[in-house]
Give the backbone structure.
Amino acid sequence: MTTDALHELAEALNDGALTTDDDRLRAATADRSGKVADGLPLAVVDAQSVADVQAVLRIAQAHSIPVVTRGAGTGLAGGAIAGGGEISLSVAAMRRILEVNADDQLAVVEPGIINADLNTALEEHGMWWAPDPASRAISSVGGNIATNAGGLLCAKYGVTREAVLGLDVVVPGGELLRLGRRTVKGVTGYDLTSLMIGSEGTLGVVVGATLKLRPLVPGTPWTIGAQFTDERTAAEACAAITAARIRPAIMELVGGVGLSVLAQYTGADLEGAFVLVQADDHDAEQTANAAAEMLRSFGGVVEQTDDLERAAHLAEIRRQMMPAMESVGTVLVEDVAVPRSRMADMFSICNEIGARHGVTIANVAHAGDGNLHPSFVFPEAEPTEAVWAAAEEVFAQCIALGGTLTGEHGVGVLKARWLRQELGDAQYALQQRIKSAFDPQGIMNPGKMFG
Amino acid sequence: MTTDALHELAEALNDGALTTDDDRLRAATADRSGKVADGLPLAVVDAQSVADVQAVLRIAQAHSIPVVTRGAGTGLAGGAIAGGGEISLSVAAMRRILEVNADDQLAVVEPGIINADLNTALEEHGMWWAPDPASRAISSVGGNIATNAGGLLCAKYGVTREAVLGLDVVVPGGELLRLGRRTVKGVTGYDLTSLMIGSEGTLGVVVGATLKLRPLVPGTPWTIGAQFTDERTAAEACAAITAARIRPAIMELVGGVGLSVLAQYTGADLEGAFVLVQADDHDAEQTANAAAEMLRSFGGVVEQTDDLERAAHLAEIRRQMMPAMESVGTVLVEDVAVPRSRMADMFSICNEIGARHGVTIANVAHAGDGNLHPSFVFPEAEPTEAVWAAAEEVFAQCIALGGTLTGEHGVGVLKARWLRQELGDAQYALQQRIKSAFDPQGIMNPGKMFG
């Protein structure tokens, strides 16, 4: 039956779109989460068009073959990894910009386009698309949509959900749905566009997106680097900036464990905690002054600049965290979010849990929105029992603080076993019924999100 | 069986919560849409608590009795009107503010609280909740959520969906679900919070809302009134302001037919078209200057002021539209939205359709976001065949321009017959399956939205 299906697929697609090359199959089993699927997928399909995606979902449905949609493969939760008996459906080649409409401040794109490439193209129209995950240079717009990606700027400029007007989606069986609209407002029927955003490939395949753009922000940004002797005070200073209604575009906090890893990597003299603030728009200087004053009042040693080179140097401290950690061991990047006022508590909790389990937990936070990335660093190739035990405690404590398991990376396979705990039994069952409304046979990305 | 159900309900609720008084039953059959339900509901329940709502949905489910949730009753699409065989469930008495957390910039409220009352209470915390429908003085937060209400400010500050973090919802059977979260970011499971927003009482009952607040906007606003000789030019001037990336907080456009109705009502010398612009925040004056220059370049006669009394006078021209129209006849307020660049076309189309059908269509637009309110004014008590024929053409033309049937009022009963046309058959069927996932027996607000 599977052979029949692959034969039908090969017939329906252009030559070369379907491959069973071992290298491609193997690549499809992994992403950047460190998770690898069991077994090799049946085939990889490189969709070139909406019709290709429709053919895959028509034939897969007819033969009850699971389909795992894949973009750039940069996911951090294993949401797009494909294993035995599954088809890996890549939309990476569907990367055209179909329309840029500066008057209506929207763009229509295919899902495979890389976030940074889109923004480069939008620049000449004086526009940008706000979602800016740290992976923007390598992650696709479709992947950003699948995980409701956030990033550094989203306390001020919103997450992916606030930046999408409509989606074209192919559902199991191959039907093409046009969800949402091109207008700013609209309340015709249920908001299936929002439902798709963050659904991690479990409902259908996004084949087109109408994106809400913003005019480029004018003026020169001001950047602040602030050194603190301890991370709790630094976290409190950041929360105080938000509470005082100062609105920087970026506010990042690197904790003590992270700084010591970084000091080792760069040779720089770093300890305590480091806060990076960037203010933009007409009131950049005024905002930066207010933020700097607040950071100083909490004991921070502040450098403030509108020199772009110096600013890049300060931002580099934050950016080097990932390579620094990877130089020491394997890294499991976690992604919890708490109400902003509980951020200092969450830092302390992670330190305590790390110390008790003998696990290195380096913490970096998007301090403007309470999203922390506790990063577990360990010498083994895969997370050990101690790492998972520590992670489980981090999740439980985060939920107890009124937080959530994942701010922007998604559930994937990595957190599927904790989903029910956060949602509660009744909502978990309801979410599964919604899944069935789209995908009655359960062929879309099985095992992800719900486990 | 119905008698049994009412008896059970009376037992489960506090004395006086269930009423069958004729006046109350009759009031529950109508809202501000002009639509009246057939027959009288079985009873009105004034819920005082989450437990009351749970009791109603438990007993209604057991007896398969339809439930129509009602807030302040100010809906413009007939979404909350209850008729024969139905229970009208009022949450108007559930109006407490449970928490205001300025540090985390959120509030937790019950659904019955009036939008303006909430904002008055938030003011002392230096915060506000952005959704500002024209009905804000009389409409409830729960109703704003049920219709994804917009308003005058939403081109700059977003619609209701962007201002809600989480919802507590009672579903058929009486189970209480906690959807969403208290954090800025989060992607744990499908976004059921967004799905509830704009669902018009067809999925469950919102009994609590965690709202995302904003700090009060600093500074004195600048206001502009601009007179144009024709509305097409005025609409083009407004679109040019958006395209030039000037970001006023408010931009309203009153068309020619509306102005002549207004001139008759007030005795003022008004014709052509009127544009109201308001700019706020630190850059209010700069933004107002840029907007005024653009309006002048399109031939507008501009008055610009930061005097609050004079500003109120200019705003009054827009505000008096509704009483002015009501002084002439019955008013059916429509609510289409088009991409901003097509606004001028939509004005022309409405005029042409009105002239051809001999129907007065006064147009007022939220010009910052392309949301028009073509208001049909007629001497009869109910819309005539000619009015519906004209309305149907307006809807069809709006969809042809890439627009949507309803920007912010909802589908209710008024537009239910056009929903399938906008969504397409496949999406329409999918939306019904999603409805069934929440409400398998179809007891939540039947006949609304889907017709």
